[in-house]
Amino acid sequence: MPPEKSTQEITLAVIQTACSNCNLRELCLPLGLSEEELDRLDDLVSTRRRVKRGEYLYRAGGEFDAIYAIRSGFFKTDVLLEDGREQVTGFQMAGELLGLDGISTEHHTCNAIALEDSEICAIPFSQLESMSREIHTLQHHFHKVMSREIVRDHGVMMLLGTMRAEERLAAFLLNLSQRFTARGYSHADFFLRMTREEIGSYLGLKLETVSRAFSRFQEEGHIAVQQKHIRILNVAGLKALMNHQPI
Amino acid sequence: MPPEKSTQEITLAVIQTACSNCNLRELCLPLGLSEEELDRLDDLVSTRRRVKRGEYLYRAGGEFDAIYAIRSGFFKTDVLLEDGREQVTGFQMAGELLGLDGISTEHHTCNAIALEDSEICAIPFSQLESMSREIHTLQHHFHKVMSREIVRDHGVMMLLGTMRAEERLAAFLLNLSQRFTARGYSHADFFLRMTREEIGSYLGLKLETVSRAFSRFQEEGHIAVQQKHIRILNVAGLKALMNHQPI
DNA sequence: CGCCAACTTGATGGCTGTCAAGTCAGGTGG
DNA sequence: CCACCTGACTTGACAGCCATCAAGTTGGCG
Q1: Angle, helix A207-219 to helix A165-182, in steps of 10 degrees
Q2: 193-212 of chain A touching strand C, CB 7 A cut-off
Q3: Hey, which of A29, A241, B244, B247 has its CA 20 to 30 A from B28?
Q4: What is the mean pLDDT of the segment spanning B35-56?
Q5: Are A72 and A192 in the same domain?
């Protein structure tokens, strides 16, 4: 039996737990597979489970044996230094994969924490490897997903290495907006799942700086912000901010 | 015929161009393969070529069809913003792979530039995929290499997001030292292949800041620096610097 | 209603960027 | 062989962005 859906969402979604029915299959691992191949992937994705807000999906140092596809919800991944400093390495939403970092050493190298009640599909990695030896499309798509993660990380390095505070936040908002759009949500009206501190950690800023930048964007009419509720009023304005020369 | 080795190195090295003879095979893609599998990989690595200092191995936007293993030499990869800002995303040395970013979109997303006369082995990607469908060990190792790249990027994000200038530079030097060690070179005495500006771009700092940090490390007896020649005098000191709390 | 976490806003300071001048090393040409 | 040139590097003075510290506000929840 499929696991229950959390809180608000209704039975229709509960039924569609197989990859073949999942409305995220164009964003997720199944992309490009035939009907028959999809059925085989369904067998592979054995475990679907719920992760409550605040719970760890996995922890740094823990043994790696599966990657995870997000069916619904929102996660962050972070790395902790011995001295307590935290770096958020990413925010993940429905259709995205978690755990790729663990392949390297067979142990996870970061923590994955749900920022809202979420549902994930566990994909045993050794089985994914053997199936992708048989299904060319799956193999190639998996490689693309890993590569995309590398490219994404380069983007974050760019952001952290060369951009000023307001440019970073503008880039962050535009990125979120674009990913919400790809999932059928409004590009201009959404709720942040993370705190100012988590945004700051991701962007290499302190929470006060994030807060001030939000206020400034609002004063200048680029966005309307009320706590975690964001409305983007001027996409072009944000893009201009993002590309502004340093000084 | 194998390509000529550049400058200083001698004939013995020239002969060993096949993966099966390459002294980097424990660091590179062949790791863990049997003799017979190695022979097959040799067939795959069709092209070996030289890239002179300053030349591009590939450019952002260029078509992707192969990944590259570095036989000898030193590279940097970087991303350029429209407004001219540069972010160096990595420095690569012998035995490391270049071009993984291109799998995602079938186009390279960064530039790869030789920082000294180098030699690379081109590995056609579609052939690598089909061979890794047959050789389990190769498949798994390739996945590990991609994952390691993701983990490395997280480390850089940590560095850029949470560390101060001197911590970043200490971490950078220790990382270089460790990679030289793995290749049989001195951990404590080496030449930098990149300029202060390139180090700065990688670390999210200006070249003057890098220069000042080098000078400070020298004053404090952690290193001896003379232009590009670095001698590490106090590894523990650098490690302590790296882990120092912010303020 | 009170509590607490999350957030906002202000005042101040410091790290690092910016600007500028000078030094060093290597290569070229006379 | 040496003067010259150029790119890379070093060092100093100053400034600005963002961190830090602090106080107050908001919203959610028991």
Answers
A1: 80
A2: 195-197, 207-208, 210-212
A3: A29
A4: 89
A5: no
Whether residue A92 lies inside any domain: the answer is yes
Q: pTM above 0.90?
A: yes
Domain shared by B93 and B193, yes or no: no
Q: How many domains does chain A have?
A: 2
Q: Name chain B contacts of A102, Cβ cutoff 8 Å.
A: 147
Q: Which amino acid is at A47?
A: T
Query: What residues make up the domain containing A209?
Result: 163-242
| Each residue's pLDDT tens digit, B186-241 | 999 999 999 999 999 999 999 999 999 999 999 999 999 999 999 999 999 999 99
Distance B230 CA to D3 C1' (A): 31
Tell me the CA–C1' distance in angstroms for A132 and C24.
57
User: A121-136 burial, b for 16+ CB within 10 Å, e for fewer?
Assistant: bbbbbeebbebbbebe
For chain A positions 46-75, those within 8 Å of chain B (CB to CB) are none
Q: Does a structural domain hold residue B10? A: yes
Flag whether residue B240 sits within 8 Å of chain A, measured between CB atoms. Answer: no
Residue with tokens 């795959």: B44
Write the pLDDT tens digit of every residue in A166-222: 999 999 999 999 999 999 999 999 999 999 999 999 999 999 999 999 999 999 999
**Separation of A4 CA and D5 C1' (Å):** 75
For A100, the closest chain B residue by CA position comes to B147
Q: Average pLDDT for residues A37-45, to the nearest whole number? A: 89
Give domain status of residue B101, yes or no. yes
